[in-house]
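Researcher: Re-running this chain for the archive, since the previous output was lost when a drive failed. Same request as before.
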Amino acid sequence: MSSVLIKNGTLVTMDDRNSIVRGDLLVRDQRIAEIGGAGQTADTVIDGDGCVVIPGFVQTHIHLCQTIFRGAADDLALIDWLKLRVWPMEAAHSTASIRASARLGIAELIKGGTTCALTMETVNHTAEVFKVVLMTKSQDSVAIKFTRTPLALKFVPPASFPPGIPYPPTWDSEVSGVSFDNRFAFVTIPGELSSILNLQVKERGKMLGFEKTFLLGLTNDAVGYILSEDEYRHKTYESTISLFGPNFGSFITNEAFASLEKLRPVPAPEKK
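Model: Regenerated structure tokens:
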């Protein structure tokens, strides 16, 4: 178990009270173990005197595949920027160029204090970016699995639904899933899942062996929220615009469970 101790820093905790503490920060096994203590020891000790210690930044929108395009598409309107520069350059990426672009972008993020990023890639060689994130070699393979379940959702408007507004009897949608390297699973659902149901899906992913499970709510795919039956019957704002009835939440949650089952990691064969 590795540990890092930052001594005598000014610690900006970002807790509920926005506390700023003078003291040491102990990190054990990549997790903060103690804030503001003294007299600790660790495998690595960093002198934080005169420094401010803050949580890592979160970059919520970046394209690592575009890092090396800088300066090649300046001063253009959006559509021209895309059609004349960015899309052709993305299409021209090789595995080597997109890896170089991703490595440079990640190095810049780390140097600037970013510890989490949401990156959107391109249609060619996106797996190479994932390999860079995982620090694997170019010739290494990354297992990617997909699953898709079409859905025909039946409208069950709540009593508060305005009369006279037409709506189709069914709404075509889907639940889809993708897993990377048998470690990370992403499940897309047709709407915004409530926190209670979201946690249930994440827990199921953990139980199946995934390191992380992510829910991607396609809020433009279905109108309204996806709630548990109790939440639906509480007549909250969310339930007034949930258009598929009280059982919709459990139905979508079970479909997400089924997607995770199809994606579940397969243990690697034992080496003889």
